[in-house]
């Protein structure tokens, strides 16, 4: 390679866009979206920025963070709390986020049962004694199906002008590609994992040999393991301190499901009633048509994407009351999906929505509407 070119590259300030930290987190997010783990633990989670990004991945139901420094976690942990919108529109999935204060050199049962464990720019912060214990804790004890480890690639360092030693004053070491890969391959071999290497932060054109700025190992467990057997076979005492826990509102929780079903039932019944009343008006003074009072359910189906309507289940008016059979309401996709069965629907709205005496229809008083007519 041209010597001048190399010099030019070396003195130019290397800036990554998006930032290297964002690229590392995006790498994890892409992996989560590909493999859809339900339970993810981030070790050395620092300011919780990766956890915050991952809380939006709809496959994740359990997120945990661990750091030896409580104050760095506490700084932004409030960003992991549910927002008002989460309560207004609870999600179908459940989500619990927990933060623990402790060291990756120690085993704690709260770290069992995870599908994915991420260690982003963590290992280079570990003292030698901690680094020695780390594989046994993560691969032997936690034993998730996947582990992602990222660490600086020291071969890239000469491309940073002015960098004399390590990239961060707290780093205990920075490995070149061969050092990281031999450690990772040996760890994988010991604990029956496979490992593949990749990275983020491309070197400049012509300097490809130095490799990625951040080197990444993706480890996959070779043997199957069930959550339950992990918990029971590995009794250990709790050593971490839980510093934060947020349980997100979810439709899996009966109390949020009930609220959502009641709102949806009333909303659906109101729409049907509105259509019914419009039809009623259209029938005008024709007593024959008005007494039958059968709106076009096909039209309703078209408008609202309803599933099926049995011919004998139609809304009707009697005196000042309009009756919308629950069977019709249940046939609307959103209500149907929320409740699963008509029995469940009846159970969830019992005592909360005004029903006909036999409990088979939602009842509205239309005195007011009649007065307007
Ligand atoms: N993962 C973060 C940043 C990592 S910086 C990110 O992606 O942005 C390394 C973090 O590891 C620091 O927050 C540090 O407090 C934590 N750490 C260092 N030693 C540790 C140990 N033994 N156990 C757990 N966390 C540790």
From TrEMBL:
Record field: catalytic activity: small RNA 3'-end nucleotide + S-adenosyl-L-methionine = small RNA 3'-end 2'-O-methylnucleotide + S-adenosyl-L-homocysteine + H(+)
UniProt keyword annotation of Nucleus present: no
A GO BP annotation: siRNA processing
EC number, as in UniProt: 2.1.1.386
Presence of the UniProt keyword RNA-binding in the record: yes
Cofactor: Mg(2+)
InterPro entries: Hen1 (IPR026610), SAM-dependent_MTases_sf (IPR029063)
Keywords: Magnesium, Metal-binding, Methyltransferase, RNA-binding, RNA-mediated gene silencing, S-adenosyl-L-methionine, Transferase
GO MF: metal ion binding; RNA binding; small RNA 2'-O-methyltransferase activity
GO cellular component: cytoplasm; nucleus
Record family assignment: Belongs to the methyltransferase superfamily. HEN1 family.
Descriptive protein name: Small RNA 2'-O-methyltransferase
Native source species: Climacteris rufus
């Amino acid at each position: 390679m041209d010597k001048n070119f190399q010099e030019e590259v070396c003195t130019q300030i290397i800036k990554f866009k998006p930032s290297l930290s964002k690229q590392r987190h995006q790498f994890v997010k892409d992996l989560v979206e590909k493999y859809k783990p339900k339970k993810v633990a981030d070790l050395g989670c620092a300011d919780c920025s990766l956890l915050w990004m991952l809380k939006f991945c709809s496959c994740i139901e359990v997120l945990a963070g661990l750091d030896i420094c409580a104050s760095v976690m506490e700084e932004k942990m409030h960003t992991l709390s549910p927002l008002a919108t989460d309560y207004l529109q609870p999600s179908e999935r459940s989500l619990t986020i927990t933060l623990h204060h402790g060291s990756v050199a120690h085993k704690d049962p709260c770290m069992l049962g995870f599908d994915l464990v991420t260690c982003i720019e963590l290992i280079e912060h570990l003292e030698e004694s901690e680094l020695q214990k780390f594989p046994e804790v993560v691969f032997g004890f936690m034993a998730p199906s996947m582990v992602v480890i990222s660490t600086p690639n020291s071969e890239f360092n000469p491309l940073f002008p002015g960098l004399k030693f390590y990239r961060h004053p707290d780093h205990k070491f920075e490995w070149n590609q061969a050092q990281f890969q031999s450690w990772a391959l040996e760890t994988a071999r010991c604990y029956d994992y496979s490992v593949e290497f990749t990275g983020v932060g491309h070197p400049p054109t012509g300097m490809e040999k130095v490799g990625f700025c951040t080197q990444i190992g993706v480890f996959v467990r070779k043997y199957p393991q069930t959550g339950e057997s992990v918990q029971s076979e590995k009794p250990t005492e709790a050593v971490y301190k839980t510093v934060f826990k947020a349980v997100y509102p979810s439709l899996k929780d009966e109390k949020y499901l009930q609220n959502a079903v009641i709102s949806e039932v009333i909303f659906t019944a109101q729409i049907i009633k509105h259509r019914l009343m419009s039809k009623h008006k259209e029938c005008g003074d024709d007593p024959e048509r008005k007494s039958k009072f059968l709106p076009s359910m096909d039209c309703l189906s078209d408008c609202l994407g309803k599933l099926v309507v049995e011919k004998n289940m139609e809304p009707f008016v009697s005196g000042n009351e309009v009756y919308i059979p629950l069977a019709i309401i249940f046939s609307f996709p959103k209500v149907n999906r929320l409740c699963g069965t008509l029995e469940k629907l009846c159970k969830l709205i019992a005592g909360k929505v005004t029903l006909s005496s036999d409990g088979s229809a939602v009842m509205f008083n239309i005195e007011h509407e009649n007065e307007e007519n």
